[in-house]
Amino acid sequence: MPINIPKQLPATKLLKEEKIFVMDQERAYTQDIRPLNIVIFNLMPEKEKTELQLLRLLGNTPLQVNITFMNTATYESKNASKTHLNTFYSTFDEIKEKKYDGMIITGAPIEQLPFEEVDYWREMKEIMEWSKLNVTSTLHICWGAQAALYYHYGIDKFPLTQKCSGVFRHILTNQVEDLVRGFNDKFNAPVSRYTSVSREEIERNEHLTILANSEEAGVFLVKSNDNKFVMVTGHLEYDAHTLAEEYNRDLNKGIEVEMPKYYFPNNDPSSQPLNTWKAHTHLLFSNWLNYYVYQATPYDWE
Asked: Which residues form the active site (predicted)?
């Protein structure tokens, strides 16, 4: 089944070329079914790349999904065009009276800042508080995951001695949860961050369950026991070349960073990386949409 997105969204052409079933709003309105309503709070600097990455995953399920993009009202993105944001994005004030079946809060390149020093932290807190009563389940990615652990559970992030970047092997620590149904006991996942969270603090919290962990990269997948919040500390949504783009961007800025681990074939940055995590990415998103959103959300929110 399709994802329902604005007719002129730039990602539409690429999604169709990849045979992802997309439907514009005009056609969707003629279908007499109850679609899922998902809001994506996109905090990543390159909005259109993140849109494409997430839409291809949300479009690979048997469910019709209506997508709303949201951006910050208290901070103006330096990388996204105003025309694109004005055309395809809403602010929180414009959507806060609505109910949503699911929400995705992306990462953001601000993890080295204390949460309280983030320009839009007050707005972020308001949105996360709103999600408790107005969203069936929220999927938080990377910095978004750390923000959720801090706001909802008081678990702060801590700085790493060097950036954790690469494709790391993760181990399932809980194999019975629906969110990881179909996962291998070990799976690869991209990680790209300067901070981490304490496994011990999460394990001591009676409201949280760790589902996957890496000896090198730390905690990867956490859920609240009521399935309201899912926290992914890495970037399963990344394309094969995304870590390479980040690495080259940092080098061009004069930032001293190590080459992403276990990523380039033969550790040769000129080699084309392979996507070794795609299957588990699709499993995670389809499991979340099915078990935590579709089967949990009310047919009529009112």
From this structure: 142 (acyl-thioester intermediate), 235 (proton acceptor), 237
Domains defined along the chain, listed by start: 3-239+277-294 (3.40.50.880)
Tell me if 11 sits within 8 A of 48, measured CB to CB.
Answer: yes
Residue 1 binned pLDDT confidence (cut-offs 50, 70, 90): very low
Distance separating alpha carbons of residues 132 and 68, to the nearest angstrom? 18
SS (H, E, C) 50-67: HHHHHHHHHCCCCCCEEE
Given 123, 142, 152, 164, the catalytic residue: 142
Please say whether the beta carbons of 135 and 100 come within 8 A: yes
Residues 84, 82: Cα–Cα separation, whole Å = 5
Average pLDDT over residues 157-175: 96
Told to judge if 207 belongs to the known catalytic residues of this protein, a careful annotator would answer no
Q: Which amino acid belongs to residue 80?
A: A
Please say if 237 is a catalytic residue.
Answer: yes
Segment 247-258 shows an average pLDDT of: 92
- Among 140, 152, 170, 235, the active-site one is 235
